[in-house]
């Protein structure tokens, strides 16, 4: 039976494990730095911390990271890659990913997502429930697109940026690195690095760190 290790026994981890079962992974084990105090994450066991995963990395046919914080997830993915982990990706059977789209290692595509032709998704993305990524979008490393968010065609999203739940981004807009787009925002113009924007149309709330 193929073994999948998930680092990060979070709520998002439960959704990831559930998705993995739908993708025919049936031996799923969590690792989390709260182990050994933390022994279970929903239906799945927590069997070690980051160090013990790195020690046993060759035992797993697939490895994923379920940490919502983009910067931490990115760092863990790079460390696992360097240790020779078989990073995989997961696409829920109800998601539609164009055969002409590219999906980076360590990325998860949850139920009801649509990714259209020539979209390019980087390392370790979270494409959360029911979001859509239209044609020719380019997402950098460790981007999170929250549930129900919409990226129109040709949008660029920089490394470690977070698009909030239900947000919309107009076609061809460029969003920088470590940007936070607030829940429900409508982004109509480019957003520079390290900004948080909210509202309709989106305006700067403050300069912040999305990592
Ligand atoms: C934008 C965001 C990151 C700001 O969080 P925060 O730094 O804790 O900010 P606060 O909650 O202290 O709010 C600061 C101000 O911005 C306003 N604000 C916060 N989020 C807003 C949003 N999405 N749209 C409009 N205004 C918003 C608040 O009302 C508050 O206004 P006030 O100063 O007049 O009272 C957060 O509100 C947000 O939208 N996060 C996305 C959540 C999400 O997508 N979750 C899905 C996870 S899968």
Model description:
By secondary structure, the chain is of the alpha/beta class. The chain is 15% helix and 30% strand. It has helices at 11-22, 50-55, 70-82, and strands spanning 3-7, 27-31, 40-41, 44-48, 62-65, 90-91, 96-97, 102-103, 108-109, 114-115, 120-121, 126-127, 132-133, 138-139, 144-145, 150-151, 156-157, 162-163, 168-169, 174-175, 180-181, 186-187, 195-198, 203-207. Strands 6-9-12-15-18-21-23-24 form an 8-stranded mixed β-sheet, covered by helices on one side. A 6-stranded parallel β-sheet has the order 7-10-13-16-19-22, with no helix packed on it. Strand 23 (195-198) and strand 24 (203-207) form a beta hairpin. The longest helix is centred in the middle third of the chain and has 13 residues, at 70-82. The protein is globular, with a radius of gyration of 17 Å. The termini are far apart. The model has no long low-confidence stretch (mean pLDDT 97). It binds coenzyme A. Residues 128, 146-147, 164-165, 180, 182-184, 196, 198-199, 205 line the site of coenzyme A.
Task: Describe the secondary structure blueprint for this structure.
Elements: E1 3-7, H1 11-22, E2 27-31, E3 40-41, E4 44-48, H2 50-55, E5 62-65, H3 70-82, E6 90-91, E7 96-97, E8 102-103, E9 108-109, E10 114-115, E11 120-121, E12 126-127, E13 132-133, E14 138-139, E15 144-145, E16 150-151, E17 156-157, E18 162-163, E19 168-169, E20 174-175, E21 180-181, E22 186-187, E23 195-198, E24 203-207
Parallel strand pairs: 1-2, 1-5, 2-4, 6-9, 7-10, 8-11, 9-12, 10-13, 11-14, 12-15, 13-16, 14-17, 15-18, 16-19, 17-20, 18-21, 19-22, 21-23
Antiparallel strand pairs: 3-4, 23-24
